[in-house]
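hey
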């Protein structure tokens, strides 16, 4: 949701709860406003919690080590056998 969306929900909920005095027959706008403010607050808490965990996480990558085998070979070249 993000910080901006959460603040928007809180603002719309506060407007519906405290500033609006309209009545809809089957819908209580005060309850809708409180629900929006609670949802915005919950989204704000979750967003800040995820952002704080993202900053503390460190990723360590290990590359596989390759081993090299080195063989030393000495060829002795000398005069041919007299036989």
């Amino acid at each position: 949701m993000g910080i901006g969306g959460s603040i928007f929900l809180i603002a719309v909920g506060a407007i519906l709860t405290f500033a609006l005095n309209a009545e809809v027959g089957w819908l209580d706008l005060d309850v809708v406003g409180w629900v929006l403010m609670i949802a915005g607050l919950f989204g704000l808490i979750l967003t800040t919690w995820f952002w704080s965990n993202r900053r503390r996480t460190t990723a360590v990558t290990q590359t596989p080590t390759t081993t090299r085998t080195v063989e030393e070979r000495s060829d002795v070249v000398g005069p041919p056998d007299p036989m």
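Residues 2-54 form one domain. The helical segments are 2-19, 29-56.
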